[in-house]
Amino acid sequence: MNSVEGLLAASVVSIQNSCFVYPACQNCLSRLILDSRRFNCLKCGCTGEAKSARYRYRLSLKIADTNDLFDITVFGSCLDPFFGVTAENLQRHIQDFNQLSGETNAEAFTGALVQAVETCFIGKRFIFGL
């Protein structure tokens, strides 16, 4: 969906999940199925090596305007300025941290990332293109 049908000024009430990046098909932007060596897109049939999978931002939010609550999802590079890196680079940092720290500290990193995203977004007002 590239065309904007309307704009909504609303405040972020909560972050709906802690997974902010996903492996995305470069043809149709759908979530890829990854195994240790390969990826597969169930929507368009694209396949390739897992190490060459590209990542994309996906931020699910609960927002409120003056009258209503909405569940929305913001996708793509419009989130780069908020995270300070591309989704590809964020995923690389997460993988590097997990490899260096081991499984026990991976949850601590995820918790810190979620807390940073909550601090950046919750209570802030944005204009969303719908």
TrEMBL record:
SUPFAM superfamilies per the UniProt record, alphabetical: Nucleic acid-binding proteins (SSF50249)
Highest taxon of the lineage: Eukaryota
One cellular component (GO) term of this entry: cytoplasm
Alphabetical GO biological process terms: negative regulation of intrinsic apoptotic signaling pathway in response to DNA damage
Family annotation (InterPro entries): DDIAS, NA-bd_OB-fold, Rep_factor-A_C
Residue spans crossing the bilayer: none
Residue span(s) of domain Replication factor A C-terminal: 9-95
Entry protein name: DDIAS protein
